[in-house]
Amino acid sequence: xxxxxxxxxxxxxxxxxxxxxxxxxxxxxxxxxxxxxxxxxxxxxxxxxxxxxxxxxxxxxxxxxxxxxxxxxxxxxxxxxxxxxxxxxxxxxxxxxxxxxxxxxxxxxxxxxxxxxxxxxxxxxxxxxxxxxxxxxxxxxxxxxxxxxxxxxxxxxxxxxxxxxxxxxxxxxxxxxxxxxxxxxxxxxxxxxxxxxxxxxxxxxxxxxxxxxxxxxxxxxxxxxxxxxxxxxxxxxxxxxxxxxxxxxxxxxxxxxxxxxxxxxxxxxxxxxxxxxxxxxxxxxxxxxxxxxxxxxxxxxxxxxxxxxxxxxxxxxxxxxxxxxxxxxxxxxxxxxxxxxxxxxxxxxxxxxxxxxxxxxxxxxxxxxxxxxxxxxxxxxxxxxxxxxxxxxxxxxxxxxxxxxxxxxxxxxxxxxxxxxxxxxxxxxxxxxxxxxxxxxxxxxxxxxxxxxxxxxxxxxxxxxxxxxxxxxxxxxxxxxxxxxxxxxxxxxxxxxxxxxxxxxxxxxxxxxxxxxxxxxxxxxxxxxxxxxxxxxxxxxxxxxxxxxxxx
Length: 552
Fold this sequence. Notes:
The protein is an alpha/beta fold. It has helices spanning about 20-25, 35-40, 55-65, 70-85, 85-95, 100-105, 110-115, 115-120, 135-140, 170-185, 205, 220-240, 250-260, 270-290, 305-320, 325-330, 350-355, 365-375, 390-400, 420-425, 460-470, 475-490, 495, 510-525, 535-540, and strands at about 125-130, 150-155, 190-200, 245, 270, 300-305, 335-340, 340, 380, 405-410, 430-435, 440-445, 445-450, 450-455.
């Protein structure tokens, strides 16, 4: 007997494993769903209860057990134990109701999970490569049993969500991100690999935690790290042919530095820079459809000028240029504000990436004053400073625009620059609002507002699937703009009328498959694919979609 369908990733022959070894293989086990005939043939008799169940019955039991967990963190722990024991059942459950499970597996629960990762650690998932492995990185990667890794998600744990340096506790991020590749876009999980690249941590609390699982040293200087990351990137190319590197949650300066260093050399992207910028552009596309205006005519103020803020700004410039502005004209419409105030030309503390968005202006540390002076029609928070968008800030925006666009993108929830309720109430229901976390519907003056969640999970899984399918040689900003437009197109006029500017999470798989088809088509159009172009890209890609069902 053997698995016959790639749809559920069960590509190994059952005859290679028998008895307990088969039951304990998360990719191959069916648990109580093994038939009586299979139990006899595979040495499973006596190792299972006598009842033969369907995956639907197993699914029902999972939901019943989840319902008894008191918190989302407990549900997160339970689900990650499930994927370690029965991967097919895990995805069968998750993909049945993404709107319910995404907040448990990722934002906002992932923040608490990362803070406590060393304490809730059960078993290794993925790989841990440290700077002490210098000179032996390829040997370490060779220990991974599957040589057909197509996407790996690598973090250094330097800037986890809005929580800062979490060191090895940040491993929860690449694990969760790659689970969403499958749950949101149907990417087969067999070809996905989470990796933590350990340079140490400057978090003294972690260094003093007896249960901390990472290197107990402060972070290595960039001069040492650069050569090691070069070795890591080269080793990935040698060990895993056609593998895309997804950089995730590196420190701001490191994130910008390494994306610039490798983007023209290997297939890679940085989700915090390009993915965040892409989902922001998707939201802006729909905001402009609501106001019947053009993005090229807006003035945008970014509150936050780290790697994500700069990535957002760069992607917004690219979107404005597609509407006819020159590079200079687009940049003139982008302003930025960080911990040291407005980015303006007299400051001498700006990086080259920040300096391109610094304009002549008097120094200011007052956000309301800057709003009144710069007169933005769009205000985007990506600062991790909770409650930074006060009533005075929102009211100042309202004096400039009839329908001000307010995006409070920082997460977790307590770091959001304002809540949905605050944005709608302080703007008298006129703000076009989105956040990085999901806020509940808001009732105001007899109207229901549906705040959208500007979350990268609409973007990077679709990009990943397109790259997975096409074996793309490079990833470009144009692909992220195409993904943004496709995501925006998935929102209906009726949904926009309720204030919704991102697609419903309940239909995320179909939304992302359409996006993946558009990005894959672009990859073929730009001659970046490593495979021959099929006659029907849509049918070809959909045939690869992972389906969480048992096959024999």
